[in-house]
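REQUEST FORM: STRUCTURE PREDICTION
Request ID: SP-0412
Submitted by: Lab K.M.
Chain count: 1
Length (residues): 433
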Amino acid sequence: MPDALLPHSGDAALEAAPEPRRPPRFFMSHWRGNASDIAALQRALQFRGLHAWRDVDHLELGELFEAAIRRAIREEVSAFIAFVTPTFLTRPVIWNVEVPEALERHRRDPGFLIIPLFCGVTPPELTAMCARHGLGDLSAFNGHSVAPGATKKVRNAELRRVAQRTLRAGLRPRIAADAAYVPRLLLRAQPHSVGEQGVDLDLDWTAPFEAGCPSATEWRDELMPALHDTRAVLDELSRRHAHVHVQARLSAPLALGEVLSATAKYTLTFDGANGAWSTVAPRRRAPVLVRHDLAAPGTDRSVALVEVAIARDLSQTVAGHAAGLSDRPGHSVRLTPSSGASQQAVVDATWAMSAAWEVGECLRTLHDQHGVRHIHLYVAAPAEWCVLLGHTLNAVGRITVHQWHPTTGSYVRACTLGAVGATRRPVATRNSE
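STATUS: Completed
RESULT:
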């Protein structure tokens, strides 16, 4: 290399690489005795990819408690959520450290989000307490109320609104600063390294998958709403391109792909174990999958059973489980790679995209030409490919995804996708954060 091209110690070429992306953090101001009450909110935020700043987790050894809190609110978080209970009004550290720092941060940065969440305290009571401490009025910020005796449904609806606003506040500055910014999302159900670049949102679904598979209630009330809220914020911020990492059982990536769908004009890119993939990859001219029409286990012609055996043969385990289905499918179809099911079946991005669309077309044919309104879907494939498959699933009716449960050694019903059962996008709130 000529000397003129050699980097020198002061050259821009040796400038430090940019910091890896890190999921937005929020600060939860609350009395420790109310920890059980805020667990649902922290769970909702975690499912949407946001991280809590918590003193026990983020203090360095020997670090001063108050100094760490001040630094976190000044520099490290994008939102301050005050869980305002009667005991909250009496805690010195809240009024001497946390609230003053939050108000000062908002004064310097009007985009910094402050949300009071009232539980057993009225806004006038909070106003009076702020005045007593010579502070600005926290109740002047757009807050939410959760009555101590509220039903779980009402409580979850308010917590979801808080989570939506916090997600928006965390993503907006990143996207607004760069018109070409592509958010990086991680959806995981187990510990996972995201690599050097990091991610913008870490949708941590580890807890509901610890037992093997979330319950139908968790899917309906928590996980699917989290995906739809994520999409709603991306839509609002005009970002229909995302880079996706997945480390989860097949039901989760299928659901993610179905929410960030082709019909919604989303472009998804991946770096998986099988290489770099994209939803805009070209498709092969010749089919890559073979369709096998099998003897159906039942007689209901509006119901179909579909096996997608990419990575391994599912025939024996699916046949045993299908015999117990209550709605007795009148159609049964198996789709396999022309070269046979194996861990190496997905050879490149074009093969992956072709296979996903071929499965989608099969399901649409069942729906449009054979009157099928409900499909029981069983899949064995790489997690990234399941996102591609979900991305192509439109106009196919209701899909019940069945997932292998490692504890019971059998299939269980996981999420429901399609026209029935999916949580629709939330209506935009009046909040402008």
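NOTES: Confidence is low (pLDDT under 50) at residues 1-16, 420-432.
Reviewed by: T.R.
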